[in-house]
Amino acid sequence: MTVARVLAAGSSGLLFGFGLALSGMLDPARVRGFLDVFGPWDPSLAFVLGGAVATASVGLWLSRRLPRPAFDERFHLPEARSIDGKLLAGAAIFGMGWGMAGLCPGPAVASITLGVPATLAFLAAMLAGMAIHDRKATRLGGRAGLG
User: Fold this and answer.
1) Distance linking the first and last C-alpha atoms of the chain
2) What is d(CA 112, CA 137) in angstroms, rounded to the nearest whole number?
3) Alpha-carbon distance values, 45 to 21, 35, 42, 48 (Å)
């Protein structure tokens, strides 16, 4: 990996983490307040999600018009186009975890610097879940999933 790629990745990660902190996405209570549409709903994170969708849309639009990215040979876009049981089950599990913990992987990693024990436990459980999935995928020849 070249120095330029490392700097670009590091800068992007710092910007992403700063944006998560600035938007309140590192506060599990605020995230749960946004996800609790039947309780005291906090709609403020809708603006964060709207900004994320707008930014991703611009990035996707650019990726379709540029011959290649600045620091790689090609764009690495998802190839799967179908909605199947594995996708739906994974989305449901992700959503339940996000709702219960108020954290998802990005904010959890960004929260490491806060040293909150619950966040560290979430990260340990997330890494354990990833390792279990990878072990299952290896045993099944790369076909792990719930569907």
Assistant:
1) 36
2) 28
3) 12, 9, 7, 5
**CA–CA distance, 48 with 94 (Å, rounded to integer):** 19
Averaged pLDDT, 119-134:
91
pTM: 0.73
3-state secondary structure labels for all residues of the chain? CCHHHHHHHHHHHHHHHHHHHHHCCCCHHHHHHHHCCCCCCCCCHHHHHHHHHHHHHHHHHHHHHCCCCCCCCCCCCCCCCCCCHHHHHHHHHHHHHHHHHCCCHHHHHHHHHHCCHHHHHHHHHHHHHHHHHHHHHHHCCCCCCCC
Q: What is the mean pLDDT of residues 50-61?
A: 94
Please check whether residue 68 is in contact with residue 74, taking contact to mean a CB–CB distance below 8 angstroms.
yes
Instruction: Quote the Cα angle for 7-9-15, to 5°.
Output: 100
Q: Cα-Cα-Cα-Cα dihedral of 24, 107, 129, 92, to 10°? A: 50
pLDDT at 147 over 50: no
Domain segments of the chain as ranges: 3-139
